[in-house]
Write a structure and sequence with these properties.
Length: 228
């Protein structure tokens, strides 16, 4: 396969905020930035190798390894380090204080976020907390499964849509909400009610965050949240 990682729009400043860089990656690649996926053990750390080994499906293992190689390549380039020299840690959870908050680089220097779904991964780098998320458009059953777990206004908006439009709308909602929650560091562990992000063509405003939709391949939705 072609070695392909694409930057989306260069370093783009959020209105009144810092420059943020976002890349998309085809996770089916055999080589990422000159790093063979088959030789990933030489670059990934012990925790990443363990996590990759837990993936039972080869496609899931490939997706994880390719996306983490891409992440390390980008972080190393930003920090002036070889990809294998980047030390990844976890911040404290803002909800409970446990060591399972946002992924971070030891010693700081740059904030990042990684997301993957289907055959696509997105990586965002910023000087402030940031969250990025990409979601494959879900099956109709997924809409029914999560409909009542969202913000009541989002549930009402989705219910009001023609059934054929609900899947794409849910992908928009999910990517926006996940981007915010990843930036905050809580993830979806505290539920999907807040923040309200809306189902329409543009995200609803979220206090303290600049939330925007990102370009995405057909069948996907993607969003970026940057702390203001």
């Amino acid at each position: 396969m072609i070695d392909y990682m694409r930057q989306l729009g260069g370093d783009t400043p959020a209105p009144g905020g810092p420059a943020v860089a976002v890349w998309s990656l085809d996770t089916r690649l055999d080589v990422v930035g000159g790093l063979p996926v088959a030789e990933a053990a030489q670059v990934l750390d012990a925790a990443e190798r363990e996590q990759a080994g837990r993936k039972l499906r080869p496609a899931d293992r490939q997706q994880y390894i390719a996306s983490h190689l891409g992440l390390r390549l980008l972080l190393g380039g930003r920090l002036g380090l070889a990809p294998g020299e980047v030390v990844l840690v976890r911040e404290d959870c803002p909800g409970c204080g446990g060591p399972h908050g946002r992924p971070a680089v030891a010693g700081g220097g740059v904030h990042f976020s990684l997301s993957h779904s289907g055959d696509v991964a997105y990586v965002a780098l910023a000087p402030v907390p940031v969250g990025v998320d990409v979601e494959e458009v879900p099956a109709a059953q997924a809409v029914a499964d999560v409909l009542d777990t969202l913000h009541p206004a989002e549930t009402a908006e989705l219910t009001a849509l023609p059934e054929a439009d609900r899947r794409a709308a849910l992908a928009r909602v999910w990517s926006r909400k996940e981007a915010c929650l990843k930036g905050i560091g809580t993830g979806i562990g505290l539920g999907l009610v807040e923040p309200y992000v809306g189902t329409g063509p543009s995200p609803a405003p979220v206090p303290n965050w600049h939330l925007t939709d990102l370009p995405s391949p057909p069948g996907y939705a993607a969003a970026l949240a940057v702390r203001t």
